[in-house]
Amino acid sequence: MEISSMMAAQVASLQQTVQLSILDKAMNMGTATAVQMMETLPQSQAVPAAHPYKGQSIDVQV
């Protein structure tokens, strides 16, 4: 096997490793941001969200 082909294979492997490392760091940052946003949400909500139609009269004709 020629040296140039071995080096090309090593460069391709290194590029893949770097890409995976960058992707992993980006995902970790996104997860950390999402957790931080969830922690800043108000914990206590006195009034639950209203159901879109439950408890209302609906006029149905057959």
Amino- and carboxy-terminal Cα gap: 80 Å
Mean pLDDT across residues? 85
Q: With helices defined by DSSP (H or I, 4 residues minimum), what is the helix count?
A: 1
Structural class: mainly alpha
Order of helices and strands: H
Total count of strands: 0
Strand content: under 5%
Describe this structure in words.
It is a single chain. With 62 residues, the protein is an all-alpha fold. The chain contains one helix and no strands. The longest helix has 38 residues, at 3-40. It is elongated and about 80 Å long. The N and C termini lie far apart (80 Å). The model has no long low-confidence stretch (mean pLDDT 85). This is Motility protein.
Task: Pick out its properties.
62 residues; mainly alpha; 1 helix
Short description:
Helix content is 61%, strand content 0%. The protein has 62 residues and is mainly alpha-helical.
Task: Give the helix/strand layout.
Layout (H helix, E strand, L loop, with lengths): L2 H38 L22
